[in-house]
Amino acid sequence: MMAPLAKTGVISASANLYMAMGIGFLLGFTLQRVGFTRATKIGRMFYFRDTDVVVAMFTAVATATLGLSGLALLDLMDTSRFYFLPTYLAPMAVGGLIFGAGVVIGGYCPGTSAAALVAGKIDALLYMAGLFAGTLLFGDLFPVWGEFYRSDFRGVLRLDEFFGVSLGVMVLGVTVLCIGGIYGVRRLQTRLWGEKTLSAMSFLERKPAAILALVAALVVAFFPTQSFFAVEQTAGAMGGWDRGLPNPKQRVYLGPLETGRLLYDYADRSKPLDLRDAERFAQSHLPGALNVTADQVAAMRLPAGTVALLYGGDPEHSRTAVKALWQERGVRAYVAESDYAELRRLYLNPLSSETLAGLSDAEQVELRRYREFIQRSQAELEGDRAPRRPAAPEPQAMEHP
C-alpha cells in the first residue's frame, strides 16, 4: 500500500500540507483556463445554454471513481484509511438547496469564487464577503438550528450499501450515469438553443475515452471488490437491523489499531464507554472514558454526531448496547475487539518488541502516533485540562527495542 501518503507514513504531515497547496494552485489554474471563474458561464448552466460545468463535474466523478477503484485493485490505495462523512439526510438536503440557490444568485461556488478573486474579479470579492458573513451568521445563530443540523443521522451511508449491490456494480452504474449525463445535457443544450460549447475538461465526450471508461468500469464490476473498504461484511458485523442503521455491511467491531485510529481521527467527538466493573475501571481505563453498564448505554443521551467506542464488556451485551445507540440514539457506535489488557499494552504501557512484532513500518508509525495522542490526552485529563489533538508527528525510522 502507498496511499493515502500521509496516513500510511510515506510522507510527513507537513509535506502533505505543501502538496495540498500545490494541488490547490493547479486546480485554480485549471478553473481559470477553462473559464469557470466567470460568473456568467456558471449562470448560463442553469438555463442549459452552457453545460460545460455539468460536463466537467460528470467527468470528474467518473475519473475519480475509476481512478480510486483502479488504485485499490492494484493495492496502491489503502481505502480503509479514508474518512467517510456521516450522512445527516434532511439537513444535507436543505443545505444543498441553499447552496444551489447561492450559486444561481451569485454565479459562483466557494471554490470558483476563490479562483476568480485571485484573478481580480470584483464580483468574486463581493461573493466571498457574503460567504464569510454567512459563515459567521451561521455560527452565531447555531443554537437556533443546531438540533436540526444534527438530525436525521444515517451513519456512514454509501450508494452500494443503500441499493444493496456490490461496490463494483455501483462503480459501473456511476460511470454509465456520468457518460449518459454528459451526452444527455449536450443534446438538451443543442435542442434548446442550437448551440454547443466544448470544455477542455470534458474528455468523456470523446468516444474512445468513453469506451475506455466503460471497459474499465466493467472490469471493476466483475472483479472481487469486497475488500476495498473497512466497512465490508465481516464475521463481527451485525446484519438485518431495522431502518438500516447500520447497514448490514457496516463494520462495528474494530481491531486494536483501528481502535486507536478512531480515537485519534474523532478526537473532538469520540466517547469511550468502559463496560467493565467499577473496581477494574478505577484501576485503569482509557482517557476520557465513562464507566457504564450495557443497560445504561442503551438509555444514554449522547449528542448526535458522537462516535462511541465500547470496550471491556461481554460480547452479547456490547452487541445489544451498540445496536441501541445506532438505532435509537442516532449515535455511531463501535466495539473494540481487543480486551482492555490488550489496549493498555498497545497504547498506555511502554512499547516492547512483542508489541511491535508483526506490524509493518507504516503500522508502527501509525501506532506511535495514536500512542502519543492517547498518552497526552491522559496527562492533560490528569492535569484537569481538556485534551487537544496534537499535530501528527514526523515519521521516524522504527527501532525495535
Describe the structure.
The protein is mainly alpha-helical and 401 residues long. It folds into two domains: 13-221, no CATH class; 242-382, Oxidized Rhodanese, domain 1. Helices cover 55% and strands 5% of the residues. The chain contains 17 helices and five strands. A five-stranded parallel sheet has the order 1-5-4-2-3. Helix 3 (52-73) runs parallel beside helix 10 and helix 11 packs across helix 17 (361-382). It is globular, with a radius of gyration of 24 Å. The two termini are 26 Å apart. The model is unreliable at 225-249 and 385-401 (pLDDT under 50).
Q: How do you describe this structure in short?
A:
The chain is mostly helical. The chain contains 17 helices and five strands.
Compile the SSE list and pairings:
Blueprint: H1 13-33, H2 39-45, H3 52-73, H4 89-106, H5 110-118, H6 122-140, H7 142-149, H8 159-163, H9 167-193, H10 207-221, E1 253-254, H11 256-265, E2 270-274, H12 278-283, E3 290-291, H13 294-298, E4 307-311, H14 315-328, E5 332-336, H15 340-347, H16 353-356, H17 361-382
Parallel strand pairs: 1-5, 2-3, 2-4, 4-5
Structure annotation, total helices: 17
The residue-averaged pLDDT reads 78
Compute the number of strand runs. Answer: 5
Strand content: under 5%
The biggest beta sheet reads: 5 strands, parallel
SSE string, helix = H, strand = E?
HHHHHHHHHHEHEHEHEHEHHH
The low-confidence runs, each spanning 5 or more residues with pLDDT under 50, are 225-249, 385-401
Strand order of the largest sheet: 1-5-4-2-3
Helix content: 40-55%
Choose one word for the global shape.
globular
**Helix-strand makeup class:** mainly alpha
Tell me the number of structural domains. Answer: 2
Termini gap: 26 Å
Q: What would you report as the Rg, rounded to the nearest angstrom?
A: 24 Å
